[in-house]
Design brief:
Blueprint lengths: L1 H7 L4 H32 L5 H5 L1 E3 L4 E4 H32 L4 H15 L2 H15 L6 H25 L3 H9 L4 H30 L2 H6 L13 H10 L8 H10 L3 H31 L1
Antiparallel strand pairs: 1-2
Length: 295
C-alpha cells in the first residue's frame, strides 16, 4: 500500500537527481567490483592447476606453486582468530555489560579506535621488536599471528559492542527478572542474539588477515617450505606444532614477491586464490550466522 502511494507521487527535480545519483553510485560500485574480479580472473585463472596448488616455488626444481604459502595462510587465519575472537568478544562484553560509562571505558574505547587507524607497517615494526626480539620469537608464524591479533582486535571489539547494543533491553530485563545471573543472561540470551554481528566482525578480521602483507613482511618472513610429514602420527603432529615457530610467507607476501620478480601471471593466479578464499570465508561465516539467527 505504502509503495503504491509513494510511486504515485510526483518527484521533485532535486529528489529525482539525488535518486539518480544514489543509483548511479551503487551501479558504479558494483561495476568496479565486478571489473576488478573479472580482470584478475581473466589474467590469473589460466595459471591455476593441480600442480600450482600442490608444489612450492623453487628455482632449483623449476617449479611454481603456492602449497607452502597456502598452508601458512591457513595457520595465520586459525591462530589469529583463535586468539582475537575470545579476547575481543570478552573485552566487548566487559565494556558493554560490566564497566558502565566511566572514564576508564572512554579511555579504552579511544585506544581501540586509535588502534584501528594505525598503519599496518607500524604494527609490523612493533611485532618485530617486541614479539620478535624481546620475546624471542624471531621471524615466525606465531609472531605474525600475534601481530595480526593486535590489528584485528578493534574490528572484533567494535562489531561485538554494536551487536550487543542493538539487543533490546527487554531481553536483559526479562532474563534478570526470572532470576538469572548476569553471566547466565549474557551467555544464554545476549550472545546468541548478537552472534550475527560477532560473526560479521570475524568476517572482516579474516579478510584483513588474508590480505595483510606489510606487517607480516617484518614478522613472519617469506619462507615457502612445507612441513615434511613422515613417520608416526604423534611425530607429524609435533612437526605441525613446531611449524608455528618457523618463518612462513602467506599468499599475499608471495604475490608481492612474484610481482617484484616480474612474474605477473603467477601473481594474478595468487590473486584468484585470494579472492576465492575471501569469498568462501564470507559465505561460510554468513551461512553460520543465518543458521544461528534462525535457531
Amino acid at each position: 500500500m505504502s509503495d503504491s502511494i509513494l510511486a504515485g507521487k510526483r518527484r521533485r527535480p532535486l529528489e529525482a537527481f539525488l535518486l539518480a545519483a544514489v543509483y548511479g553510485a551503487a551501479g558504479l560500485s558494483v561495476f568496479l567490483l565486478l571489473s576488478i574480479i573479472g580482470y584478475v580472473f581473466f589474467r590469473g585463472f589460466r595459471h591455476l592447476s593441480f600442480r600450482f596448488f600442490t608444489t612450492v616455488t623453487s628455482a632449483l626444481r623449476g617449479t611454481v606453486g603456492i602449497a607452502g604459502n597456502l598452508v601458512n595462510t591457513l595457520y595465520m587465519i586459525v591462530i589469529t582468530l583463535s586468539i582475537a575472537i575470545p579476547v575481543g568478544v570478552g573485552g566487548a562484553i566487559y565494556l558493554n555489560e560490566y564497566a558502565g560509562k566511566g572514564k576508564l571505558v572512554r579511555l579504552i574505547e579511544f585506544a581501540t579506535e586509535t588502534l584501528a587507524g594505525i598503519p599496518s607497517v607500524v604494527f609490523g615494526l612493533f611485532g618485530m621488536v617486541f614479539f620478535g626480539d624481546v620475546l624471542g620469537l624471531g621471524y615466525s608464524i606465531l609472531n605474525g599471528a600475534l601481530t595480526l591479533t593486535l590489528m584485528v582486535l578493534p574490528l572484533i571489539v567494535k562489531n561485538t559492542q554494536e551487536a550487543l547494543r542493538t539487543t533490546p533491553d527487554s531481553y536483559r530485563n526479562a532474563a534478570l527478572g526470572m532470576g538469572a545471573t548476569r553471566w547466565y543472561m549474557i551467555r544464554t540470551v545476549l550472545l546468541p542474539s548478537a552472534m550475527p554481528g560477532i560473526l560479521t566482525g570475524a568476517i572482516l578480521a579474516a579478510g584483513r588477515i588474508v590480505g595483510e602483507s606489510a606487517a607480516l613482511l617484518f614478522t613472519a618472513g617469506s619462507a615457502r617450505l612445507l612441513p615434511k610429514l613422515t613417520g608416526s602420527l604423534g611425530r607429524n603432529l609435533e612437526k605441525l606444532g613446531q611449524k608455528v615457530l618457523e618463518p612462513g610467507g602467506t599468499l599475499t607476501l608471495e604475490l608481492y614477491l612474484q610481482t617484484e620478480n616480474g612474474e605477473y601471471g603467477t601473481a594474478f593466479g595468487i590473486g584468484c586464490v585470494l579472492l576465492i578464499i575471501a569469498l568462501l570465508t564470507n559465505l561460510l561465516l554468513k551461512r553460520a550466522a543465518h543458521k544461528i539467527h534462525d535457531t
